[in-house]
């Protein structure tokens, strides 16, 4: 685990003399203590590379994902606005880092740019007004989807269609909410081969980050290191006429204001 402070990239385990180990999940369990330690850290430190292979939280106990959370995405899907969050999961084996090869398991793989929330402490029956204090940070995510698998069966198979290996990249860094002028209003964009295919702001979500945390934590505890993929704006390939899916050689770049970007190069399975 690394800490980015200005120009320095610091190996947390080495800089803390083992107080905080390399395993991010262990650090999330002590997030308040970690932030206090980081605030007192001297400039400089032990240098280390950025870009974890498994993303910013590579072993979460729960990965939540939200469907139809932007008005324009619900419109392009021809569906009514949801009265409550539409929740599914992406299995943890789909998680990967920010700069990867994306192996295409079929010919209907689609892109979905998403803001991802990482929880910093246990949240249970949390009010929306208090929700940001439970967040460790925000990062960039992609909810890649194999639309064929997703639509097989008498009911949609969202979790399976969205959980092939490499279908949940996150990164490149985790940014604490206090680093943003307004963490509820960030520019989000996805480009395929340099063409902007999705472009919006997270303020266009139907259910904001605090509202999602309140709704989810009313049902089950959210644990340190858990991820919430918060939904995607309009512009997905499946909703286009004609429909458009990823092909070997395509490059997908996903970026969010104040955080950075992901990059996947598509290859044949």
Share in β-strands: 25-35%
Looking at the structure, the CATH topology of the largest domain is Fumarylacetoacetate hydrolase, domain 2
Number of domains in the coordinates? 2
Helix content: 10-25%
Q: How can the largest sheet be summarized?
A: 7 strands, mixed
Q: Please give the number of β-strands.
A: 16
Number of helices: 7
Tell me the Rg in angstroms.
Answer: 18 Å
pLDDT averaged over residues? 93
Which CATH architecture of the largest domain is right? Alpha-Beta Complex
Q: CATH homologous superfamily of the largest domain - what is it?
A: Fumarylacetoacetase-like, C-terminal domain
* Helix-and-strand structural type: alpha+beta
Level-1 CATH class name of the largest domain:
Alpha Beta
Report the oligomer.
single chain
Poorly predicted runs of 5 or more residues: 45-49
Straight-line N-to-C gap: 30 Å
Keywords: Hydrolase, Metal-binding
Family: Belongs to the FAH family.
Protein name: Fumarylacetoacetate hydrolase
Organism: Streptomyces hygroscopicus
Describe what this molecule looks like in 3D.
This protein is an alpha+beta fold. The protein folds into 2 domains: 1-49, no CATH class; 51-268, Alpha-Beta Complex (Fumarylacetoacetate hydrolase, domain 2), CATH 3.90.850. The chain has helices at 12-15, 24-29, 31-39, 71-76, 147-150, 158-161, 209-217, and strands spanning 2-5, 8-11, 63-67, 86-89, 95-96, 99-104, 109-110, 113-119, 135-142, 145-146, 168-175, 187-192, 195-201, 227-229, 251-256, 260-268. One of its GO terms (molecular function) is hydrolase activity.
């Amino acid at each position: 685990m690394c800490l980015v402070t200005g120009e320095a990239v610091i190996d947390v385990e080495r800089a803390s003399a083992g107080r905080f180990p390399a395993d991010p999940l262990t650090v999330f369990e002590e997030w308040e203590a970690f932030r206090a330690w980081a605030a007192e850290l001297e400039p400089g430190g032990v240098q280390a590379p950025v870009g974890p292979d498994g993303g910013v939280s590579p072993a979460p106990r729960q990965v939540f994902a939200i469907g139809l959370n932007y008005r324009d995405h619900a419109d392009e899907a021809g569906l009514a606005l949801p009265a409550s969050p539409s929740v599914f999961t992406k299995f943890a084996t789909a998680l990967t880092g920010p700069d990867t090869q994306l192996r295409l398991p079929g010919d209907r793989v689609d892109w979905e740019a998403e803001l991802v929330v990482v929880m910093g402490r246990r949240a249970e029956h949390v009010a929306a007004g208090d929700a940001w204090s439970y967040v460790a940070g925000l990062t960039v995510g992609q909810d890649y989807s194999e639309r064929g698998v997703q639509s097989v069966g008498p009911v949609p198979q969202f979790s399976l269609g969205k959980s092939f290996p490499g279908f949940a990249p996150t990164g490149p860094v985790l940014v604490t909410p206090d680093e943003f002028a307004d963490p509820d209003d960030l520019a989000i964009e996805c480009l395929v081969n340099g063409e902007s295919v999705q472009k919006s702001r997270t303020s266009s979500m139907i259910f904001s980050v605090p509202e999602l945390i309140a709704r989810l934590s009313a049902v089950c505890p959210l644990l340190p290191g858990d991820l919430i993929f918060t939904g995607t704006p309009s512009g997905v390939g499946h909703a286009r006429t004609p429909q458009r899916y990823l092909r070997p050689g395509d490059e997908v770049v996903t970026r969010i204001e104040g955080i950075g970007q992901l990059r996947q190069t598509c290859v044949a399975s």
